[in-house]
Design goal:
This protein folds into three domains: 58 residues, Integrase, N-terminal zinc-binding domain (Arc Repressor Mutant, subunit A); 81 residues, YebC, transcriptional regulation domain (Alpha-Beta Plaits, 2-Layer Sandwich), CATH 3.30.70.980; 72 residues, 2-Layer Sandwich (Alpha-Beta Plaits). It is built from eight helices and eight strands. The protein starts with a helix and ends with a strand. It is 45% helix and 22% strand.
């Protein structure tokens, strides 16, 4: 499932810089608001909200920001209605890309993303033409332990927790689960004192593809440009 970890690893390393600019807080606030609107504002009854709040707390998002995002989702504060979008994209070198976004103006968002794609030799694909190459997946991120013994212990805990797969990526470990088992796997690992860096529902490619470094750099520039746009939440590709 190596298609997820390539960009995710890069994104994790630049998260601290993004947080300083408030970009991360803006995106996390949107996720919380949409999750509340779709599934309710009680974290005990809404696992996705609980995970979103924990992610925001780990990013040092102020408590007031989190509470305001929840109130927006509950309709207690005035503001534009947010909606989720999933865009299917043909990237350079034939790479398949899925982009998850949250927007209060779908037409504006599509127009801005088309501009980004045009500048990086990419284009929007018709509905269903890319999505079939991916499968919905629960994704947990953990820090890589410092010793081989700790790594082995963690791998055994991950297997016991019911994960589908795992992947080491430099200083990060990605754990993949069935979507419906994300929260249970997370709780099982935390019960054994393993700290989760992030947890989310996402997409992993069914058949990752390999390309050379020159072409990979071209794709990374596209990913960076998309990630800079506030309405883009997550980016997935079938790049190995």
């Amino acid at each position: 499932m190596s298609g997820h970890s390539h960009w995710a690893g890069i994104k994790h390393k630049k998260a601290a810089e993004d947080a300083k600019r408030g970009k991360t807080f803006s995106k996390l606030g949107k996720i919380i608001s949409v999750t509340v609107r779709e599934k309710g504002g009680d974290p005990a009854m809404n696992p996705r909200l609980r995970i979103a709040i924990e992610t925001a707390q780990k990013a040092n998002m102020p408590k007031d920001n989190i509470e305001r995002a929840i109130k927006k989702g509950m309709g207690e504060l005035e503001g534009a209605t947010l909606e989720t979008i999933l865009l299917e994209i043909y990237g350079p070198e034939g790479i398949a890309i899925l982009v998850e976004g949250i927007t209060d103006n779908k037409n504006r968002t599509l127009s801005e993303i088309k501009k980004i794609l045009h500048g990086h030799q990419a284009k929007l694909a018709s509905e269903g033409s890319v999505k079939w190459m991916f499968k919905p997946t629960g994704i947990l991120t953990l820090k890589t332990p410092s010793t081989e013994a700790e790594k082995e212990k963690l791998e055994l805990a991950i297997i016991d927790a019911g994960a589908e797969d795992l992947e080491w990526n430099d200083d990060l470990l990605f754990v993949y689960t069935l979507p419906e088992k994300l929260d249970l796997t997370k709780q099982a690992l935390e019960a054994k004192s393993h700290q989760i860096e992030s947890a989310a529902l996402g997409w992993t490619p069914k058949n990752p593809v390999e390309i050379d470094e020159t072409k990979r750099e071209k794709l990374e520039k596209l990913f960076e440009a998309l990630d800079e746009y506030d309405d883009v939440q997550e980016i997935y590709s079938n790049l190995k």
